[in-house]
UniProtKB/TrEMBL annotation, chain A:
It comes from the Bacteria. Coiled coil: none annotated. One of its GO terms (molecular function) is sarcosine oxidase activity. InterPro entries: SoxD (IPR006279), SoxD_sf (IPR038561). This is Sarcosine oxidase subunit delta. One of its GO terms (biological process) is tetrahydrofolate metabolic process. It comes from Komagataeibacter nataicola.
Automatic annotation (TrEMBL), chain B:
Its main location: cytoplasm. This is Sarcosine oxidase subunit beta. The lineage of its organism: Bacteria, Pseudomonadati, Pseudomonadota, Alphaproteobacteria, Acetobacterales. It catalyses: sarcosine + O2 + H2O = formaldehyde + glycine + H2O2; sarcosine + (6S)-5,6,7,8-tetrahydrofolate + O2 = (6R)-5,10-methylene-5,6,7,8-tetrahydrofolate + glycine + H2O2. It comes from Komagataeibacter nataicola. One of its GO terms (molecular function) is nucleotide binding.
Length: 87, 419, 1017
């Protein structure tokens, strides 16, 4: 598997560290505890396209949002998590 | 006369008449209109659940529905290791219950699953690891589980060909559970299937669950590719795909699906007698009764339903193998495969009710489900029959995440790919 | 017929009697040179270009191995990697390679091959007696017995089974050869160099695309070398050779022979194994034995050809029974005629060509058995040409010859049987396209009723299939398809397919009929049931009857069939067996093959040495060594090193006369506590944090408050994970208005960096803050002890006021060393003494250590290692890895009150859950043995005195322990239920692994200077 880092170009998956689902949003500090439980523990875990966080540990240290099909490992898009560059 | 009871005599008798008297290992059942319990997932856990429901709890109107062929999931894709060398109080009694069930399994189900208690040896390479294994081994002993702490000399006597002298991380010793070992994985599925079948359980293959019929918060049955099947209770035992099936009931789970690769070499004359795990890399190995080295390592680390992994992990695992036992350099890896792991948020399983009435969940086995098969089946059967957790599975509640009562053996927190 | 096949070839003169089956010529053999090898100790001759199989056949050796279960005598079935029978051990000792296929082993001068899985010898193998028990040893019989009594499995049955298990023996010792890994990139990867592959590579290269052509064999050409195909009036293999030369001259083409593409992975990644030095006795100095290639390809063309199927008939496994296509390969490429008297048995026209090639090579053809009725015109023509009887609609019902074929019994279409003496039977049940690589992504092939084989129905993006692998039946079709797909692939990779004039494609022109009629068992069902064993999976001895039994017992699904009978599980992965077995199952159940299932395979396509997959990462090079800046100096002093993650650190510094590590460590601790010592703490993670929002970020990642930390001060901080459990700790110093430097634990340096970047980039990208890891940039040395200030005065420039008043505990400052080096000074203490950490650019670390030794000499300065560091941190009750193990909370660590209630921070909400601060949770305590001499063992458990040794009474454990020379007692840190309320209580310390129970007193987790007066001195 290879990921196209917007900063570094296409690199082997071994350069990246995975975190998981990029659709979950950290709740407001005042949100009820249930919202935090959801955020920390519950996942859609879909079979299909999955936006997910990858960290380019052996490269630019950028956190990326990669949309990847969990059934085929095909990658549809990559963008930086901070909302900048898109590959 | 058919030969239905397996024995030395029945094997001899069949040998004399060309093996023509054997009955199918299990009937190819068609779905009935309804059952007391429908179990979703014809893998080890589902089949064991059905067996214990019928055998120990007297519930025989049971169907196991399997979307593909029986045993297509992790029961047939694992590295066959059984052990109960856990640390935490939430886990040890459960896995020890499983170990005891393994020890009597073959006579119980009349099927030789080749439970082989050859020992599981976890190597350690520094003082910190030794201390952690000491804590674990002592926890096991306090729970009445066997454990021994070996020093480097004792490990050398047992496995003289490990890299003791030139290693990057020299071996200091190991924690040995002699009662651990391996079990012929497919035979577990077939044995439970056969035993459950003889007790009246319907095993329905090629029957995929496509929906749940839920009325007023209560499950009434499952929609399948072979029609609706009514059920008083539905139990999900489809680890790897738990999230997908639970989603049919509107549930989100504290689980990610990940791929774990495993490997087998060509058959070799036996030279590795026990299961060995490397403490300085992701590598563990045993040798099967056919002679193949069965080995594995870490999960690939990303969500996947693809049942296959990638090269970096293959290389990482083989690097561990060569670092630990450089003698296997010219041994050839014959086959690699991937299984889907229900990686839970604390690395431990779930056996519990769900927010949907009469819908029960058995999930989150991470890469440790095989060894748990008998106890998982027993405890899930207990829960389905009695509506309360089995005494050895009281920690495996779904609400433990919300409560913070997690069972985190590795201390990795809510990040599944690190467990 | 072309000029190569004129008249029977004469036997070669120079090989003499030693190679009785050798012909004058083979297109892949250098007959001018003779080399020697041994098989089971017997010295034999061969030529360069031979495989072990061809060389054995040339020498008339037919019995090569024994099967797995029944130890049936076996010979050579194939001429390629699909070989199930001819497995041998190559070389010996540490270089022994078990299960090596003779058919792909290149012979070199001095090669030693040994038969395997037999005792005492190949010809007389006592375990051949297993064959007598075949009626018992049916598929899966072991699941039905060996269960009584339960304890007998490990004690009796399994040891017997394991004694018989396995094939060859693994090497005796560590592999002495080296391996390496390489990565290659290309636009078009072509797998296979037969006509389709060569045409594809040529066409793709013509567009300017970067092309890699991989061929598992030592020679390119594929079947062009095995057949007598004529292209434009010349031997096909000559065209292959020319095309290879042409391709090698192209600037963007790389041809890799002896390279098997074994796996297709995601994103256009392919794994390939190059056998660099397997065809020589020992690799040259510096040369790897094999090289693992990771090939990243934009497009891939599979031109992998096909694998021929055997025919299932009784006793179809004797040495001398070979695949027809393999026989042609031995004749045409290797110049070996595998028998004098041959019978051909086929269900297709392709197999019949074998009769012609053998006949032209001088063998006599005893009969042609064509299972088809009526037989084809081609069969009739062939039979006439070779002067052999043709049995149209015939079947072989029996064979004889224990260790080598002697005769076959043929049943003609009228039901009459005929005994035909022969020493070679060439069989062809048709060909399977080799689509293994295409199925690695779990794509299911479909059954083609015309081809009678599985083909790929829809090709995944980036993959193309050409030649016979795609069902192209003739050489011309393969060439044309390869050519077209070469262009298509290049175009898909972004190249202009129109450019690039390649030489014109050659043409074979002749009709190459196939005309296959399915034949899944030589006999009808009734007869098959009565007949002897007909093997499907040769190596694992799976027979047609085993498939019947599997059907009877309900193991219909292909995967059940495989797993129950072990079909396809042998070293050849069922390459010659799987389709026959599937067809047999369909036959048993009266279903079509399509209804019965399909087979997919998993990587690797061919078995791969574990050493090659590991590459250079073994022994000391398993993981990198990371060395602190004072490493060289420390080694010079004779320190003992320890691994701390991948770091190598000084564990202690023994002095002459010291007799134990304990003595050394005690001295180091006493020196620090009484005078001064120093320790390299560079390994702690150091993260430089800058930006106007730096303080805001610290507030959010640490549990405690940071806004009011003044410039020039440091503070201890605790980080949680978002789930509320403790993550990491360390100190962070404020060096400027918007400039902080954070330290992390050694173990979590990378994880904390990643975490900070996550918090910034994913959670709060609006914050103006930047991070960089400076762990390697700064050498950091702790100088600790009551005389540390005195030592530093010798080092730090006079302009800096080191007095307690000016630079108190937790001070942080930019400093200049005497001589001008700019550094940083922190007044931090892990030891609990007056202490500093001094940081200088890493290149000065070594000099700083030497300087400290010199200027500290008057004070008796003592370097100390990780062991003394650990003793002193336990004496002070500082948590480290064993306490911060990811399972503990701030409450457990006695830091519950650090959690700020006035701000949001990572882990805040989840940490507030009752379960994380439950009073019953084990919390950090100190422990001292009641008898000072009783060792406290980390990992021992804490139980109430007098309670039974059981889990129900388990209340905690010891996480860290040490002998404290300061307290003159063993001391420990541990976690105990209600620990904070139990100071003074005596509890039992259980270590059942060691068989000990001792007693210890629960004390506060600080053993030395609880008031902290030394810190502030």
């Amino acid at each position: 598997m290879r990921i196209h880092c917007p900063y570094c170009g296409t690199r082997g998956v071994e350069e990246f560290t995975y975190l998981g689902d990029a659709t979950v949003r950290r709740p407001d500090p005042d949100a009820p505890e249930a919202a935090w439980v959801d955020y920390v523990y519950l996942r859609d875990n879909p079979a299909g396209p999955h936006p997910e966080y990858w960290y380019h540990a052996a490269g630019c240290h950028g956190w990326l949002v990669v949309v990847r099909d969990t059934r085929t490992h095909e990658i549809f898009s990559v963008r930086t998590a901070s909302g900048g560059a898109e590959a | 006369m058919s030969s239905d009871r397996y024995s030395f005599l029945s094997v001899l008798r069949e040998a004399l008449r060309g093996q023509t008297g054997w009955k199918p290992a299990w009937r190819k059942a068609d779905p009935q209109e309804s059952y007391d319990v429908v179990i979703v997932g014809g893998g080890g856990h589902g089949l064991a659940t059905a067996y214990y429901l019928a055998r120990r709890y007297g519930i025989r109107r049971v169907a196991v529905v399997e979307k593909s062929w029986l045993g297509n999931g992790n029961i047939g894709r694992n590295t066959t290791i059984v052990r109960s060398n856990y640390l935490l109080a939430g886990n040890v009694p459960f896995y020890e219950c499983s170990m005891k069930l393994w020890e009597g399994l073959e006579q119980d189900i009349n099927y030789n699953a080749m439970v082989s208690q050859r020992g599981v040896l976890n190597l350690f390479h520094n003082d910190g690891q030794r201390n952690a294994y000491t804590r674990r081994g002592n926890a096991m002993r306090l729970h009445g589980v066997d454990a021994q702490l070996l020093d480097a000399a004792a490990v050398r006597r047992k496995l003289p060909f490990l890299d003791f002298d030139n290693a990057r991380f020299p071996i200091q010793g190991g924690l040995l559970q002699q009662r651990g070992g391996t079990v012929r994985h497919d035979a577990v599925a077939w044995g439970y299937a056969r035993a459950a079948d003889r007790l009246g359980v319907d095993i329905i293959e090629n029957c995929e669950v496509t929906g749940m019929r839920i009325t007023d918060g209560r499950v009434e049955g499952v929609e399948t590719t072979r029609g609706f099947i009514g059920a008083k209770k539905v139990g999900l035992a489809c680890a790897g795909n738990s999230s997908r099936v639970a989603a049919l009931a509107g549930l989100r789970l504290p689980i990610e699906s990940h791929v774990l690769q495993a490997f087998v070499t060509e058959g070799l004359k036996p030279f590795i007698d026990c299961v060995v795990t490397f403490g300085a890399g992701h590598f563990y190995i045993s040798q099967s009764d056919k002679g193949g080295l069965v080995f594995g390592g870490d999960i690939d680390g990303y969500n996947s339903y693809a049942q296959r992994g990638n090269m970096p992990v293959v290389e990482d695992v083989c690097e561990g193998g060569m670092a630990l036992m450089p003698r296997i350099g010219r041994v050839r890896m014959l086959r690699q495969w991937g299984g889907l792991m229900d990686m839970s948020m604390d690395g431990s399983p779930i056996i519990d009710r769900t927010p949907v009435d009469q819908l029960y969940l058995n999930a989150g086995w991470c890469y440790g489900g095989f060894k748990a098969t008998p106890a998982s089946g027993l405890c899930f059967a207990h829960l389905l029959a009695r509506d309360e957790p089995h005494p050895v599975a009281t920690a495996y509640r779904l609400d433990r995440f919300a409560r913070g009562a997690v069972i985190d053996e590795k201390g990795m927190g809510a990040q599944p790919n690190l467990h | 017929m072309n000029d190569l096949s004129t008249s029977p070839m004469s036997r070669t003169g120079h090989a003499g009697k030693t190679q009785p089956m050798r012909l004058a010529r083979g297109n892949g053999i250098n007959g001018d040179t003779t080399i020697r090898f041994t098989f089971d100790g017997r010295v034999l001759e061969a030529h360069p270009g031979d495989t072990l199989a061809s060389a054995l056949l040339a020498n008339g050796v037919r019995l090569v191995g024994r099967s797995f279960k029944y130890h049936r005598p076996r010979g050579i079935l194939s001429a390629g990697p699909e070989e199930p029978n001819a497995l041998v051990e190559l070389r010996d000792g540490a270089r022994r390679e078990p299960n090596s296929r003779a058919t792909v082993t290149e012979v070199f001068d001095g090669l030693a091959a040994t038969s395997q899985n037999r005792w005492p010898g190949l010809k007389h193998d006592l375990l051949g007696a297993n064959s007598l028990l075949a009626p018992v040893f049916s598929a899966g019989f072991y699941y039905k017995t060996f269960m009584w009594p339960a304890s007998f499995w490990e004690k009796v049955y399994e040891p017997i089974i394991r004694r018989a298990a396995g094939l060859g023996r693994a090497a005796d010792d560590a592999d002495p050869d080296s391996y390496e890994k390489a990565t290659a990139f290309c636009d078009v990867l072509v797998v296979g160099s037969g006509p389709a592959g060569l045409a594809a590579a040529r066409a793709a290269a013509g567009t300017g695309a970067r092309v890699i052509l991989c061929e598992q064999d030592s020679l390119t050409g594929g079947r062009l070398r095995a057949e007598q195909t004529v292209l434009d009036g010349r031997p096909g293999w000559e065209w292959a050779q020319e095309t290879e030369q042409y391709l090698r001259a192209q600037p963007e083409v790389r041809i890799m022979t002896r390279t098997c593409v074994f796996g297709r992975y995601d994103g256009g990644c392919y794994g390939a194994l190059e056998r660099v030095a397997d065809h020589v006795a020992v690799p040259q100095a510096g040369q790897p034995r094999q090289r693992l290639w990771r090939i990243v390809a934009g497009q891939c063309i599979l031109a992998t050809g096909g694998i021929e199927r055997p025919i299932v008939f009784p006793d179809n496994d004797r040495p001398g029974i070979m695949l027809a296509g393999a026989v042609r390969a031995y004749v045409n490429r290797f110049g070996v005629v595998p028998g004098h008297q041959a019978v051909i048995y086929a269900n297709n026209d392709d197999g019949l060509r074998t009769a012609v090639d053998l006949h032209d090579a001088g063998a006599s053809i005893a009969a042609i058995i064509d299972s088809r009725l009526p037989s084809s015109t081609a069969a009739q023509v062939t039979a006439r040409r070779v002067g052999a009887p043709l049995f149209a609609g015939g079947a072989i019902v029996k064979t004889s010859g224990h260790t080598g074929l002697k005769a076959v019994q043929v049943r003609d279409s009228a039901g009459q049987t005929h005994r035909l003496a022969c020493d070679l039977l060439a069989v062809s049940g048709g060909w399977n396209p080799d689509i293994a690589l295409a199925t690695h992504h779990r794509m299911h092939p479909v059954y083609d009723e015309v081809l009678n084989a599985f083909v790929v129905s829809s090709v995944p993006a980036g993959l193309h299939i050409a030649g016979f692998a795609a069902g192209s039946l003739t050489t011309d079709a393969a060439l044309a398809q390869g050519d077209a797909l070469g262009r298509t692939a290049a175009q898909a990779a972004g190249f202009d397919a129109a450019i690039g004039p390649a030489p014109a494609l050659p043409r074979a022109g002749q009709e190459e009929g196939y005309a296959i009629a399915p034949l899944w068992h030589a006999l009808d069902r009734g007869a098959a049931k009565q007949a002897g064993r007909a093997f499907i999976d040769f190596q694992n001895d799976v027979t047609a009857k085993d498939v019947s039994l599997a059907a009877r017992e309900g193991f219909w699904a292909v995967e059940h069939l495989k797993r129950y009978t072990t079909l396809g599980m042998a070293t050849d992965q069922g390459k010659t067996a799987n389709v026959n077995a599937l067809a047999m199952m369909a036959w048993e159940r009266g279903r079509t093959i399509a209804q019965t299932g399909t087979t997919i395979v998993r990587p690797p396509v061919q078995p791969c040495a574990i050493g090659a997959l590991a590459g250079t990462h073994r022994g000391r090079h398993f993981k990198p060594h990371r060395l602190p800046p004072t490493h060289d100096w420390a080694v010079e002093t004779g320190c003992v090193l320890t691994s701390n993650g991948i770091w190598q650190r000084a564990q202690w510094y023994p002095r002459p006369g010291e007799t134990s590590w304990q003595e050394t460590v005690n001295r180091e601790v006493r020196s620090v506590r009484s005078s001064v010592g120093f320790c390299d703490v560079t390994t702690l993670g150091k993260i430089d944090i800058q930006g106007i929002d730096a303080a805001t970020l610290l507030e959010r990642v640490y549990v405690n408050a940071w806004r009011k930390l003044p410039v020039g001060r440091a503070r201890y901080g605790l980080m949680l994970r978002e789930d509320g459990f403790a993550f990491d700790d360390g100190t962070t110093a404020r060096l400027g208005e918007n400039h902080y430097v954070m330290t992390t634990t050694t173990a979590n340096a990378g994880a904390v960096m990643r975490h900070l970047e996550f918090c910034h980039q994913c959670l709060w990208p609006e914050l103006d803050v930047q991070f960089i890891s400076v762990t390697d940039a700064w050498a950091q040395i702790a100088v600790a002890g009551p005389r540390s200030r005195d030592v530093l005065r010798e080092i730090i420039d006079d302009s800096f006021d080191l007095s307690n008043e000016a630079f108190g505990y937790m001070g942080a400052a930019h400093v200049r060393l005497r001589g001008g080096v700019a550094g940083r000074l922190f007044r931090l203490s892990f030891s609990g003494e007056l202490a500093y950490e001094i940081a200088v650019p890493a290149r000065y670390g070594d000099a700083l250590a030497r300087l400290l030794m010199r200027v500290g000499a008057p004070y008796g300065i003592t370097p100390y290692g990780t062991e003394a560091l650990g003793v002193m941190r336990i004496e002070k009750g500082h948590p480290a890895g064993p306490e911060l193990n990811g399972q503990t909370t701030a409450h457990d660590l006695g830091m519950g009150r650090m959690l700020s209630g006035r701000k949001d921070f990572i882990g805040r909400v989840m940490a507030q859950r009752a379960a994380l601060s439950d009073a019953a949770r084990p919390t950090l305590v100190g422990l001292k043995p009641v008898n000072a001499g009783d060792a406290l063992v980390a990992g021992a458990h804490l139980l109430p005195r007098g309670a039974p040794a059981s889990a129900a009474s388990d209340q905690g454990w010891i996480s860290s322990s040490a002998w404290s020379p300061t307290v003159e007692s063993w001391i420990g840190l541990g976690f105990l239920c209600h620990g904070a309320q139990r100071h003074g209580e005596i509890i039992a310390v259980h270590n059942p692994l060691a068989g000990t129970v001792t007693e210890a007193r629960v004390v506060p987790p600080v053993f030395v200077d609880p008031e902290g007066s030394r810190l502030h001195a």
